[in-house]
Structures are given as C-alpha cells and as structure tokens.
Amino acid sequence: MPVSEKTPIVTLLEGNTPLIPAPAIAERIGRQVRVFVKYDGLNPTGSFKDRGMTMAISKAKEAGAKAVICASTGNTSAAAAAYARRGGMNAFVLIPDGYVALGKLAQALLYGAEVLAIKGNFDQALEIVREMAESYPVTLVNSVNPYRLEGQKTAAFEIVDALGDAPDWLCIPVGNAGNITAYWMGFCQYHQDGKCDRLPRMMGFQAAGAAPLVTGQPVANPETLATAIRIGNPASWELAIAAQTASQGNFHAVTDAEILDAYRLLAASEGIFCEPASAASVAGLLQVKDQVPTGATVVCVLTGNGLKDPDTAIKHNHSQFKQGIAAKLGAVAEAMGF
Ligand code: F0G
C-alpha cells in the first residue's frame, strides 16, 4: 500500500468481509462446483467503496486537502461523505437526480456532504467533477484517483487468503469499471509475491441497458433498475479490457429480470441481502453456467448491502405482502392459509 509514517490513516476499520459459501447457487449450476460470495455490503458504509475511500481520503488529508468531490450513483457518495467528515474535510457529491437509491441518499446527507443532484446521468456528473477538480481546490475521489484502486485491491488479497489460492472465476458487476481493475491488480500483485499459484478468469457483468463493454460502444442514455451501475461510458474502460484480455475472461450483459431473479435467490435461498447491482454477478454466473468447468471454485462479488435500496426490495416482492389484515387471530390464521 502506498502509505508512509506521514500518512494520517482515516479509517472505519473497513475490509475483512466474509467469503460466504453459496450452496443454492452452486446447486443451480448443476455440477460439482464451489461457489462463494464476497459480501462487501458488510463494510462500514455498506459497500466496497470504503476500501478505496480509506486510501483516497487518507492521501488527500496527507496532501493537505480541505475538501473532496465525486460523482456518484450513490455508494461512492456515501463512502466519500463518511470518510471525508471523519478526516475533518468537506465532501461535495454530484448525483443523477432521481436515480440514487434511498439509503445512499440518506447516508450522504446524514454524513454531512453537500449533495448536488444534477439533471443528467452519472457520466455527465463525472465529466463535471473532473473539471471541477482541475479548476478548484477540491480533490477528486472517484476511481480515476489511483489511490481508490490501491485500496480496493485488498478484496482480492482477502479472497486468496481465505481460499489458499485465487478462484478459477471471479464474477463481478461492472459500472465505471474501477473495481474489476482493482481486483485484477490485487490478484496480479499477490501472484507476483508468490501468494497464489493461479490467476482467475475475470468475468465482468453489466446491466443490459448499460453495457458499453459488451457492445464496444458508449451508451448515451444508460437505463437499468440496478441504478448503481447505470453508467454508459466507464472511466476505466481500457484497464477493464486489459484485465479481461490478460485473464481470458469475458464481459456479458444481464437483463433487469435476470438481476431481480438472482437478487431474490440470494436473499430467499442464501439469506444474503445485497443490492440489485451486486446481484448482477450472480445473474451473470447463472447465465453462463454451462461454461463453468467441473470442480471449479467461483467467487461472486456482492458489492453493496441490500438495505441501501429498500424501494426495489419492496416494489418487486409485493405478492408476499398482505396488508390490512384485521387484528384478530382468525383473520391472521386465514391470511396465513390455515
Ligand atoms: N456495485 C455497486 C453496488 C456499485 O455501487 C458500483 C459502482 C458497482 C457495483 C460498479 O463498480 O463502478 O467500479 O465498476 N458504483 C459507483 C458509485 C459508480 O458512484 O457508487 P465499478
């Protein structure tokens, strides 16, 4: 890690998240395979962004920054706000108006960020904050800040430490493409240091309405219910392609329906509540399950906590929700189907 004694470490004790066996997903694959999920929704602000933000904010503080800025579909803004305030700095966050999950907005506000909702999408917000950081005294903490990726690579270290080697496949949701880049950096660094014998195939999954790495073209108006990855022109495009090529991996698109199926499967069969964008990793694995070699070890990255987006959870599971039942034993028993 690029830190020295002079670096003031701003931390909330992020990382060390569990690698949880996922037998119900393995069963869906239908052959002898091991499937695990790296549940990064258990980080302090509920997403993997904390791994990168502890680094970016510590380095910003070391450099004497008074304020940081980011564009975000929600999770980066929550993490930037929490770590900036903990480090005694101000945070400015630009979000696409109306397309950020409720929990993430609540976090950014309560952590004390200045929240600027723009009439535009993430890609436009990122363009603006990049220019802002060049012209004004604010440090950019999006994943184009190299310290973000240095922090996020630690998730790959933890997976190798837990399994004793790298997995055969790493399935990961892709939006701005920073995280897939960071994981690949982490696996390569561990491989060079002799801590793992193999390198995983990097399998990146994008939402079908926001899949520029699959089509090879930027998407002007990205659309998906997985708002975290509603991104049409990823900043780390080339680095993500390099990781895919070097690892003999692939990019695939998953539909919103496939994302919702995986989201429900994870919650109702594994007991793991992630946000919709995170479920894209599992949706993708199930889409290409016939390509998984027998005996393989697969890790799916669950990037964010399901509590971030209560609206989607409630809206898409309404049939189980029986309301207006009389406060009487008989009525409750009847509603239960007895
Ligand atoms: N999953 C979640 C829950 C995310 O919040 C993000 C990105 C991704 C996956 C994709 O990661 O961008 O590194 O490819 N969220 C960013 C944000 C864009 O602003 O919170 P990526």
Set out the fold topology.
Blueprint: E1 19-21, H1 23-29, E2 34-39, H2 49-62, E3 67-71, H3 75-86, E4 90-96, H4 102-110, E5 114-118, H5 122-135, E6 139-140, H6 146-152, H7 154-163, E7 169-173, H8 178-192, E8 201-207, H9 212-215, H10 237-246, E9 250-254, H11 256-270, H12 276-287, E10 297-302, H13 310-315, H14 329-335
Parallel strand pairs: 2-10, 3-4, 3-6, 4-5, 7-8, 7-10, 8-9
Antiparallel strand pairs: 1-2
Helix pairs in contact: 2-3, 2-6, 3-4, 6-8, 7-8, 11-12
The structure holds ligand F0G.
Residues 47, 49, 72-76, 143, 173-179, 228-229, 275, 277-278, 303-304 line the site of ligand F0G.
Task: Report what the structure shows.
By secondary structure, this protein is α/β, with parallel strands linked by helices. The protein folds into two domains: 19-46 and 146-316, Rossmann fold (3-Layer(aba) Sandwich), CATH 3.40.50.1100; 49-140, Rossmann fold. 42% of the residues lie in helices and 15% in strands. It is built from 14 helices and ten strands. It has helices spanning 23-29, 49-62, 75-86, 102-110, 122-135, 146-152, 154-163, 178-192, 212-215, 237-246, 256-270, 276-287, 310-315, 329-335, and strands at residues 19-21, 34-39, 67-71, 90-96, 114-118, 139-140, 169-173, 201-207, 250-254, 297-302. The chain has a six-stranded mixed beta sheet, with helices on both faces. A four-stranded parallel beta sheet has the order 5-4-3-6. β4 (90-96), α4 (102-110) and β5 form a beta-alpha-beta unit. α2 (49-62) packs parallel to α3 (75-86), α3 (75-86) runs parallel beside α4 and α7 (154-163) packs across α8. The longest helix has 15 residues, at 178-192. The protein is globular, with a radius of gyration of 20 Å. It starts with 18 loop residues before the first strand and ends with a helix. The relative contact order is 0.15. The model has no long low-confidence stretch (mean pLDDT 98). Residues 47, 49, 72-76, 143, 173-179, 228-229, 275, 277-278, 303-304 line the site of ligand F0G. InterPro entries: Ser/Thr_Dehydratase, Ser/Thr_deHydtase_PyrdxlP-BS, Thr_synthase-like, Thr_Synthase_bac/arc, TrpB-like_PALP, TrpB-like_PALP_sf. Residues 10-304 form the Tryptophan synthase beta chain-like PALP domain. It catalyses: O-phospho-L-homoserine + H2O = L-threonine + phosphate.
